[in-house]
Each structure stands twice: as C-alpha cells, then as structure tokens.
Specification:
About 35% of the residues lie in helices and about 25% in strands. It is an alpha+beta fold and about 325 residues long. The chain has two domains: about 80 residues, no CATH class; about 220 residues, Deoxyribonuclease I, Chain A. Strands 1, 2, 3, 4, 5, 12 and 13 form a seven-stranded mixed beta sheet that branches. A six-stranded mixed beta sheet has the order 6-7-8-9-11-10, with no helix packed on it. The chain starts with 9 loop residues before the first helix and ends in a 5-residue tail after the last strand.
C-alpha cells in the first residue's frame, strides 16, 4: 500500500510566500527607517498591520494551521509592543480649578461639499476652538456658515496650485491673534500660528504636512517646524494637525524627541474615514509643550471628509508656571 504526502493548499502556499516576502520588506524598512523616515512603512502602518495579524491568527486557528498561527501571533506581539507607547503615553495632569479648552481639528478635504454634515459635526463637538485645513473655494462658504456662531475668526492666505485653492481657517470663542511666521520657507497652507486668548494665552500651531510619498517634503517640514518650536515660547505651544505620519513612525518619534513635546495618545486612527476604526491611521495628531497637557482625545462626527475629525481637551499642566 503506497503512501502519498497530503496535498498542499495553494492558498496557504501563497500566504506562506507572502509572509516571507513581508518579512524581507519589514527587515529592509526597519534598516532604512532611521535614516530615511519617509520609508518607515512598518512604523506608519503598525496599527492596521496589527489588526490584520490578529485576524490572521484567528483564521489560521480555525483552519488548524498552528505554525502559521504562531508566526502571526509573534508578529502581532511585536506590533503591539511597538504600538504600546502610542496607546499609553504618560499624560501630565491638568491644573486644578482651570477650565480646559476644547479643540476640534480636521482636514476638511478640498472636495468636501457636504455642508450639512460639516455643520452637524462642528455643532455636536461644541468646541471652544475649531481649526480646519484644506478648506477650498468649494467648501469655504459651508465652513464659514458652520463657524458663524464663533465670535473670532482667522484665515491663512490662500494657496493655489495644481490641486486647487486651499487655506486654513480658525475660529474660537476667545480672541485670536495671528503670529508672524519666520522666513523659513514653510508655506501658509502647511503651518499657521495664532495666539488664543484663553485664561492663559496659548500658542496654537496648526499644521498640514505633505505625504511622505513620493517626495520627502514632510521630513524637511518637520525639521523646520522643530526649529520654530525651539526657545522659551514653545512651553505654552500646542501643535495640532494632519502630520501625514503616525505616532509609531520614526518621523514623529524623532520630532517629539527633538522638541521635547508630549504627544497625545492615539488608540483609533482617523484616516481613511471610510475604513473600520482599527484599520485607520492616526495621522491627525496633537503635541504639547511642557506648560500644557492635552487629554481625552475622541473622534468627532464624520463631516464628509476622508479624515475623521478629532476633538480633545487642553489645559495648563499641573505645576506649570
């Protein structure tokens, strides 16, 4: 009686090959990320990759592929270790007796024409400060209408290129004063600074950085932004915006280290808004100087953009001058 080896499922052969290829990509990316943060694919996509790895473990167990399950479990544990600081970064406690400032931020997207959703999202957030980037000629009327209940408004100069017109719009319940921009070459649609006249003035820095691919402009902008945030005025600064980078990336870890700013933890990402929360990237981020603390980050109601808005609380840190 002759024996024959069991047939190998072509699907799992393909998956095994994909794992080997993925391991090679991970090794190459990890080796180059420190020198070229734009190619930090592992750090940037660690959150969605963890979700896929966990689903893979479950599927492998269902079809009794124990070796595959163990390999994927090891990958999931490694990714969870990488993401743990992003989820549980230490937060300075807020000063006692000081009312926090509630801030709403979103990349509104130039093609967003959903005026009613924009209005509904901003109204539901009930924020003290609203900051929006990628406001275009298409949706600027909707945005201004949605912000009509705020007493104070600022707009950055309009920038126009092959993608159309864009501006940053800021509205608040407190007085706003635009801050002069250093002559460092950063365009107005990438960074806009204002002083928010809360009980203790806040230096609010709104950013929208370039995508890391195909150019390297984001990393250069981060270096320029780090230079802006040096000095004594950085203590009461909060940077909020679309960094086009996640907190698990080399780029933002390096930025936080160079500036001494504290990132606000991110559990569920915000982009793309159409994806389930565990598969989104947390590219809308918040960082505070040592005199401030940010907390209670939440996803606000969708507003028609491909980015889910975020809302968070900001207060003086306990013990800060």
């Amino acid at each position: 009686m002759s024996s024959s080896s069991p047939k190998r499922n072509p699907l799992f052969s393909l998956l095994f090959g994909a794992k080997l290829l993925g391991a090679g990509v991970v090794a190459l990316a990890g080796a180059t990320a420190k020198e070229l943060p734009s190619f930090d694919t592992v750090g940037e996509f660690a959150g969605p990759a963890l979700t896929v790895a966990v689903v893979g473990v479950v599927l492998a167990l269902i079809v009794a592929r124990r070796v595959t399950a163990l390999l994927l479990l090891a990958v999931a544990c490694w990714l969870a270790f990488e993401l743990a600081p992003q989820w549980s970064m230490p937060e300075d406690p807020p000063a006692v007796g000081v009312r926090p400032v509630r801030i709403y931020f979103d990349n509104i997207w130039t093609q967003n024409h959903h005026g009613e959703e924009i209005q509904r999202s901003i109204d539901a957030a009930d924020a003290d400060v609203v900051a929006l980037v990628q406001v275009s000629d298409l949706n600027a009327p909707f945005v201004r209408q949605a912000l009509s209940g705020y007493r104070y408004h600022l707009e950055s100069p309009t920038a126009t290129d092959q993608e159309g017109s864009r501006r940053i719009i800021l509205a608040a319940r407190f007085p706003l004063k635009p801050l002069p921009a250093p002559d460092d070459g950063m365009p107005s649609q990438s960074v806009f600074e204002a002083e928010v006249g809360a009980a203790k003035p806040i230096r609010l820095v709104i950013v929208h950085l370039q995508r890391p691919w195909p150019s390297h402009g984001r990393d250069e902008s981060l270096q320029q932004l780090a230079a802006r945030l040096s000095g004594r005025h950085a203590a009461r600064a909060v940077v909020v915006g679309d960094f086009n980078a996640t907190l698990s990336s080399v780029a933002l870890r390096r930025f936080a280290h160079e500036t001494g700013m504290t990132p606000l933890p991110v559990v569920f990402g915000d982009w793309p808004s159409i994806a389930p929360a565990p598969l989104r990237l947390g590219i809308e981020n918040v960082m505070t100087g040592p005199a401030l603390t940010a907390f209670d980050r939440q996803l606000a109601l969708a507003n028609g953009s491909d980015h889910q808005p975020i809302v968070f609380e900001l207060a003086p840190a306990a013990g800060a001058d």
